[in-house]
Amino acid sequence: MAWRVITREAAQLGESPFWSADDARLYWVDIAGRAALRTDPASGATERWPLPDEPGCIAPARTDGRPSGWVLALRSGIYRAQHWGGALDCLARLPYDPAHERANDGKCDPRGRFWVGTRDERPGGGHAAMYCIDARQGPAQVQRMWGGASTLNGLGWSPDQGTLYSADTPTHRIEARDWDGAHNTLGPVRLLHPFALKPAGWQPGEGVPYGGRPDGAAVDAEGNYWCALYEGGRVLQLSPGGAVLQAIATPVVCPTMVCLGGPDGRTLFVTSARHGRPPADLARTPLAGHVLALAQPVAVPGLPVNAFVESGAALPQVVPALTLQAVNDGVVAVLLASGAPVGHLKWIGGRWKFKAMGYEGTDLVPGGGPLTARHNCTFALLDAAAIEAGLLG
């Protein structure tokens, strides 16, 4: 099958692609190049965002159903960004030594939590783990889901949200676990598909057969699991039971992760790597490091990307004991149930500013936490729709 090259410049180690229907662009990261990128496949125009250390993965974020930036897992921690190329706000530090371990593959689950698998860079590995970051009800909480791995990859969820898929790449195994999304619990691990181990002394192009090892993955609308085979030069589509449905050769030895996207969800994208590859390997495969798209649409569309859900949006809501009263355009009086005023909200520069009576005004911004006004009335963070609902109700 034919592939299209959709990037003008090669990355060092491309990973974590996702399709954004909001702006019809593909997002991904360059781990070794320390950057996040996004491109318009129609034009090839790409924007590069330099980062302070290696990003393992990136995912979109939404607040009250609207886009609100991105969540990124870097070697140094989990970060939120409201604007492309903007400030990075640290949500959490993962409990590992960044001198020897870093964030690797990650995605959001269907309920808005951010899952991040790590890579243990020490010889032999064995200390990598899967973490889940949940900020839906307040400050981010980190939960260790399992450990004892070396390089975690291949995250995905079934369409019915009952199964979680993953791979510890050096083991050459794709695994599955039952997943209870409501309680975020996992059942026993089971084997989905094994691969033959890498032959000792194997080098690409020397005639010794090697099918590669499982790297990044995606799940389509029928529950089939698509996986890039690193050093295998191919992408596999597996049935929900683990049977091989098709194998698609790639023009690169090291495809790293797949993504199903495009306007109809039927374009197969794949990132790739050139970092650390032998010169002879790169000479044979000059497209290494580029993002590729299969020219022929696949039969079954992919699942839409899941977004990170975070409590505390940029705009305020008043607790039920308080009432809101419109004064004029962009000004809202805040009253106690008795009718006594405690302050007002004013719409300035695209955000609500709260001014308690007798106090200076304070911008209510993401991560700012609750504010206590006169009469011990507490203001939480929500959105403009909630304020309008309060005015109407």
Which terms would index this structure?
393 residues; mainly beta; Neuraminidase; 2 domains; five-stranded mixed beta sheet; five-stranded antiparallel beta sheet; 2 helices; disordered C terminus
Describe this structure in words.
The chain is mainly beta and 393 residues long. The protein folds into 2 domains: 3-199 and 210-309, TolB, C-terminal domain (Neuraminidase), CATH 2.120.10; 315-392, no CATH class. It is built from 2 helices and 34 strands. It has helices at residues 279-284, 384-392; strands at residues 3-5, 14-20, 25-30, 35-39, 46-50, 55-63, 66-74, 77-81, 89-92, 101-108, 114-120, 128-134, 141-149, 152-157, 163-168, 173-180, 185-186, 190-194, 213-219, 225-230, 234-238, 244-249, 255-261, 267-272, 292-294, 308-309, 315-318, 322-328, 331-336, 341-348, 351-356, 361-363, 371-372, 378-382. The strands form 8 sheets. It has a 5-stranded mixed beta sheet with strand order 9-8-7-6-26, with no helix packed on it.
Number of helices: 2
Strand content: over 45%
Distance between the termini: 59 Å
Structural class: mainly beta
Layout of SSEs?
Layout: E1 3-5, E2 14-20, E3 25-30, E4 35-39, E5 46-50, E6 55-63, E7 66-74, E8 77-81, E9 89-92, E10 101-108, E11 114-120, E12 128-134, E13 141-149, E14 152-157, E15 163-168, E16 173-180, E17 185-186, E18 190-194, E19 213-219, E20 225-230, E21 234-238, E22 244-249, E23 255-261, E24 267-272, H1 279-284, E25 292-294, E26 308-309, E27 315-318, E28 322-328, E29 331-336, E30 341-348, E31 351-356, E32 361-363, E33 371-372, E34 378-382, H2 384-392
Parallel strand pairs: 6-26
Antiparallel strand pairs: 1-25, 2-3, 3-4, 4-5, 6-7, 7-8, 8-9, 10-11, 11-12, 12-13, 14-15, 15-16, 16-17, 16-18, 19-20, 20-21, 21-22, 23-24, 24-25, 27-34, 28-29, 29-30, 30-31, 31-32, 33-34
